[in-house]
Amino acid sequence: MNEKTAKSVSKFLSLVLRHSPETIGLKLDENGWADVEELIIKCNKNGSQNQMTAELLDYVVENNDKKRFAFNEDKTKIRASQGHSISVELNLKEAEPSEFLYHGTVGKFMESIKLEGLQKMSRQHVHLSKDKETAIKVGSRRGAPQILTVRSGVMYRDGFKFYLSENNVWLTAEVPAKYIEFKS
Questions:
Q1: CATH no. for 101-181
Q2: Averaged pLDDT, 135-152
Q3: What is 3-80's CATH topology?
Q4: Which Pfam families does the UniProt entry name for this protein (predicted)?
Q5: What is the pLDDT of residues 70-101, one digit of tens each?
Q6: What is the DSSP string of 131-180?
Q7: pTM of the complete model beyond 0.85
Q8: Which residues have a Cβ under 8 Å from the Cβ of 152 and sit 6 or more positions away?
Q9: Mean per-residue pLDDT for 115-143?
C-alpha cells in the first residue's frame, strides 16, 4: 500500500463520513456509523479515485496517524472519530482535562480568536491537543503554525465540559478568549 493512496482514501473518507455522506448516497446512523459493505459499494460506484476494498479500509483505519476513523468490534461498521460538520451523536464521555491543552492555528485567524475565542464554526466541537507537537502538526496544515495555550483546567473548574474522543482529541463547545494564552 503506498502512502499516496492511503492519504487519498483518508481524505475521501473524511468527506463522506464527516461532512457529506450524500456525495455517494451513503446513510449514516444517528451515531455516525456507516455499514462497511455499503460504503465500499457506494465508494466504488460514486467517485472514489481508488478501488475501495475491505483491506484498503482496514489499512487506512489502522495506519492513519491521527486515528480519524474507527470500526465497531466486528468491523461491520465504520465512522469518523470526530470532526463532523453534520449532526451525529458520538456518545462522548465527559472527562477532566489536564491543566493546559493546545490549539494549532495560523496567523490569519489570530485577531478573530483574540476577540471571540475559539469557536466550533461548522464542526460540533472545538478541537484541542494534549501536547504542543500535535498542535503544531494541526496548525501546519494551513501555513506557519501559531500555537495557543488553553487554560483548560480553569475552564473545567469554571463549568465548561470537555470530552476525549476515541483518538485522543480533546473536544469542547467553545474556548472564550479569556482562557487563551497568546504569545506576543
A1: 3.20.170.30
A2: 90
A3: Arc Repressor Mutant, subunit A (1.10.10)
A4: PTS_2-RNA
A5: 999 999 999 998 777 777 777 788 899 999 99
A6: SHHHHHHHHHTTSSEEEEEE-HHHHHHTT---EE-TTS-EEESEE-GGGE
A7: no
A8: 97, 98, 99, 100, 101, 128, 162, 170, 172, 179
A9: 88
Sheet with 126-128: strands ordered across: 126-128, 170-172, 163-164
Can you tell me which residue has the cell 460504503? Answer: 39
pLDDT digits (tens, 9 = 90+) for 19-51: 999 999 999 998 889 999 999 999 888 866 678
Give, in order, the Cα–Cα distances in Å from 179 to each of 29, 50, 86: 35, 44, 27
- Residue 153's beta-bridge partner residues? none
**C-alpha cell of 183?**
504569545
Residues present in the chain in total: 184
Are the CB atoms for 68 and 81 separated by under 8 Å? yes
Q: State the Cα–Cα distance between residues 67 and 53, nearest whole angstrom.
A: 19
Q: Which helix (H) or strand (E) holds 77?
A: strand 77-80
Radius of gyration for the alpha carbons in the chain, expressed in angstroms and rounded: 17
Cβ neighbours around 54 below 10 Å, total:
12
CB-based burial of residue 79 (10 Å sphere; 0-12 exposed, 13-18 middle, 19+ buried)? Answer: buried
SS3 99: coil
